[in-house]
Write a structure and sequence with these properties.
By secondary structure, the protein is α+β, with helices and mostly antiparallel strands. It has helices spanning 15-24, 78-86, 107-116, 118-144, 147-158, 169-176, 180-192, 208-215; strands at 26-30, 35-37, 45-51, 53-59, 65-72, 93-96, 100-106, 164-165, 196-199, 202-205. It is built from eight helices and ten strands. The protein is elongated, with a radius of gyration of 20 Å.
């Protein structure tokens, strides 16, 4: 079994294509906190993550970060796919949140398989369409969902079972696509209601039932 079998959409590749993909691709390892790509950079590889997580984010002209999505093990990066297909530079940046291991498929091999292999083409565009749908959901969330509901949901998602979220107000703002001041005001309101306890670099969750009730609000 090789890394190709980690991706169900590639399991239908014939033996010749599998051999070429294994021969021309390489396994890369990237440390936590590294910049994988950034604005103005030319994509040279399609990365298929085997282990770890990459955070893809947009940085505004004012320096505010907005998290677009995360690439996890078993995924490919839709932004990289789009840039490879359109021959464009990156417009956002990818940061490793953990140590990452990935299969790097060179652009030339990517283009060859896209044109010659229906299975590879289906794999790429299936992942692409799913991520585009996710991005539209994020846009809808930012535009139409109440911030207090979204913040409660994200705090519960980030809780690892110890009723504490290790995150700054700026980091939570980036996750939710808003300004730090908005998050700070909402967290202070949560604290006033005794739902959370704020401390430097973390948020203690003191009333999970109240947060869950708010998070479930339609």
């Amino acid at each position: 079994m090789d890394w190709i079998d980690r991706f169900s959409g590639l399991s239908g590749l014939n033996e010749d294509l599998r051999a070429r993909l294994l021969e021309k691709s390489k396994i890369v390892q990237v440390d936590q906190g590294a910049l994988v790509f950034g604005p103005g950079k030319v994509p040279e590889y399609l990365l298929l993550l085997l282990d770890g997580t990459v955070r893809v984010q947009q940085v505004t002209s004012e320096g505010r970060e907005i998290v677009l999505y995360r690439v996890n093990a078993g995924d490919s990066c839709v932004l990289t796919t789009a840039c490879l297909l359109a021959y464009e530079d990156y417009s956002a940046e990818g940061i490793t949140e953990t140590e990452v291991t990935a299969a790097a498929i060179p652009r030339a091999v990517f283009e060859e398989l896209i044109s010659s292999s229906p299975d590879f083409r289906r794999f790429v565009f299936t992942a692409y369409s799913k991520r585009i749908a996710d991005l539209f959901y994020i846009i809808e969330e930012i535009a139409f969902r109440r911030m207090d509901i979204r913040l409660a949901q994200r705090l519960l998602e980030l809780d690892r079972g110890n009723h504490k979220v290790k995150s700054t107000h700026a980091q939570l703002a980036a996750e939710l696509g808003t300004a730090r001041e908005v998050i700070s005001r909402q967290l202070q309101e949560f604290q006033r209601r005794e739902w959370v306890k704020l401390s430097r670099g973390s948020v203690g969750l003191t009333d999970l039932d109240a947060l869950k009730k708010l998070a479930a609000t339609q």
